[in-house]
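Today's session is about reading a structure prediction critically. Students often jump straight to the picture, but the first step is always the sequence itself: look for stretches that repeat, for charged clusters, for runs of hydrophobic residues. Only then move on to the predicted structure, which in these notes is written as discrete structure tokens rather than atom positions. Here is the chain we will use throughout the hour.
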Amino acid sequence: QVQLVESGGGLVQAGESLSLSCIAAGTIFGLNLWGWYRQGPGDHGELVAAITNGGRTNYADSVKGRFTISRDSAKNMVYLKMNSLKPEDTAVYYCAADPDIHKLAQLQALDYWGRGTLVIVSS
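Below is the predicted structure for this chain, in token form.
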């Protein structure tokens, strides 16, 4: 079983920064791809950033240049640094993981999810 627990959400103003953290526990051996998915009010949601164990990354166009995903494998942690936040970044952010690194290129849905942390960006 895989447990992913997010932290770091909150309320910020447009233009500010926020960092999210995710700690992974349980049967994480074999998980090779880690990501952050977000679900905003009234939208279908998207995988905004992903990173492989080897450090390859991919970002959705909506966050490219503003968000940075990173991973500390020794601590079983995944991070998302969000800069220049916009009101449209308001969403519940979920940490996600998957065994299949081939999902990186197309930012496909990952198999394992945390419970999410809420980010609200006010204008």
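Discussion point for the tutorial: The first strand starts at residue 2 and ends at 7.
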